Amino acid sequence: MQITEIYKSLQGESTRAGLPCVFVRLTGCNLRCSWCDSEYTFHGGRKMTSEEVCDEVKRLSPNGGLVEITGGEPMLQERELVPLMQQLLGTGYCVLLETSGERPLERVPAEVIKIVDVKCPDSGEAETFHIENLETLTPHDEVKFVLSGRADYEFARDFTHRHRLEERVNAVLFSPAFRKDATGSRDSSHCLLDPQQLAEWMLADDVPARLGLQLHKFIWDPAVKGV
Ligand code: SF4
Predict the structure, then answer these.
(1) DSSP count for the chain of H helices, then E strands
(2) CB of 46 within 8 A of CB of 23?
(3) Atom 2 of ligand 1, residue of closest alpha carbon
(4) Average pLDDT, integer, range 147-164
(5) What is the mean pLDDT of residues 187-197?
(6) N or C: which end of the chain has fewer CB within 10 A?
(7) What is the mean pLDDT of residues 90-119?
(8) Rounded to an integer, what distance in angstroms lies between the CA atom of residue 93 and that of residue 126?
(9) Whose CA is nearest to atom 5 of ligand 1?
(10) Going edge to edge, which strands form the sheet with 65-70?
């Protein structure tokens, strides 16, 4: 499969934020979100077998732990990815899969924790979520919305209510988008939507979701990759 990078860092998002995690970042994406911070994954990378990927994961985290499969859109390489996820699970890792949910998810192994990033209007990729994927969600999965403004917030709030997401998954995450050109200082002024504003909207509407901040962007320079 085509891999952009494999590295160890702290998990920046989801209910596992703050925990050590090995990231396996696959090359290629079929979407073009306006705020995408991973455009460097669209092309390039190097071919690796699943054995080579597993060996690198073991080298970085020999005692097990979290492995996140991300991209790009990892499910574009489903044919090779599913056996890799099975192999990692069989070796004792807790496997997270970050995906837009644009591709069908029914062949993802049940033990894998899916973190499904449903695209909102300001991303420019709304309506790409494959709605049948709602039936593949399990109580250990998570659904994330990355928000740039009020229209995105209302979309996420209404989608959550309409599909009763809080009853389907472990967590519904509302996360402010970061500016693509953010560099240097690490604070919330780089968010496209002020986290305080988002918090106030969530409290006012009593939304059954949790506010998520991209922890790694407050620890390291937001422009730095591989951290
Ligand atoms: S799905 Fe992810 S990698 Fe693809 S364009 Fe959107 S944010 Fe970027």
Answers:
(1) 6, 9
(2) no
(3) 72
(4) 98
(5) 90
(6) C
(7) 98
(8) 33
(9) 32
(10) 46-47, 2-10, 20-26, 65-70, 93-99, 113-117, 142-147, 171-176, 210-211
Residue 102 has pLDDT above 70, yes or no: yes
Q: Does the C-beta of 191 come closer than 6 Å to ligand 1?
A: no
How sure is the predictor about 221, in pLDDT bands with cuts at 50, 70 and 90?
A: confident
Instruction: State residue 185's pLDDT score.
Output: 67
CA of 60 to the centre of ligand 1 (A): 25
Q: What angle do CA 211, 29, 39 make, to 5 degrees?
A: 70
Closest by Cα among 99, 100, 103 to 120 = 100
Question: Which residues fall within 8 angstroms of residue 47, CB to CB, at 6 or more apart?
Answer: 1, 2, 3
- Nearest Cα neighbor of 146 from 26, 43, 12 is 12
Interval between CA 94 and ligand 1 midpoint (Å): 23
What is the residue with the minimal CA distance to atom 8 of ligand 1?
Answer: 36
Is-contact 177 198, C-beta < 8 A? Answer: no
Percent of the chain with pLDDT over 90: 87
Of 142, 198, 135, the C-alpha closest to 163 is 135
Please give the average per-residue pLDDT across 23-27, as a whole number: 98
Flag whether pLDDT at 222 surpasses 90.
no
**Could you give the CA distance from residue 60 to residue 54 in angstroms, rounded to a whole number?**
10
Q: What is the pTM of this model?
A: 0.95
